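In this supplementary section we document a worked example of the pipeline. Step one takes a protein sequence of length 260 as its only input; no multiple sequence alignment statistics are reported here. Step two produces a three-dimensional model, which step three serialises into structure tokens for compact storage. The input and output of this example are shown verbatim.
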Amino acid sequence: MRIPFVAGNWKMNTTATEAEKLVLEMLEKLDRISGVEKVLCPPFVSLVAVSMMLQGSSIKLGAQNMYFEAKGAYTGEISPLMLRELCEFVILGHSERRWYFGETDEIVNKKVKAALANKLKPILCVGERLEENEAGKTEEVVNRQVTAALNGIEPVVLSIAKNLVIAYEPVWAIGTGKAAGGEQAAATIQFIRDVVAKLWNKSIAQDLRILYGGSVTGANIAEFISHPEIDGALVGGASLKAEEFVSIVEKTAEIKGRKK
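The serialised model returned by step three reads:
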């Protein structure tokens, strides 16, 4: 059975001091919730401080991005070698990286391979833009992104279902307050599972955790995770509010039936 998964992507928010305060506000309550894998993804400048605060807790740490080279003359970049001593997870292929910073499917593929080679677990983001959704191209876009991102990865060697999470984040729903409907999100996530089954096999596809992301809140999380195809959420703005994020994790635990 797939363990539910909720990650908070803080994006370019919080100073180091604010990050510590936010962790303190949610740490105790979040730690008490069982049966859900909980991950916080603060900005790079706060990773060390947050890592120390999470020691001994059930909450895990993730980074928001990384470069695919281990080291070198890449001013301003962060490598997997730098992250693997601090983090277990890393968000890759987020739409904001694709659209604002020009990351291609090929670059995302290199990053996924580099993360796995360095024992980091990618949270791979895929999703269509509004005009693609309205043109009925959701499946076409998602199929291309998933297939390209996982190209050349050997699932048997990597025990891939344990080391990879996919997040379906329709670009038009991110930060807009306009979440996809539960039925629509579930249908697309089932399609992603079918794509993975064709790439590898049905067993891996069934074991792989696939999340929804895009204007997730405590008020609408149940609409998504009540669907068996959806294993949790990648949460943006709501993860910057301690009580809201705790509520999302609590409701995930309750609905998935693993709360103490």
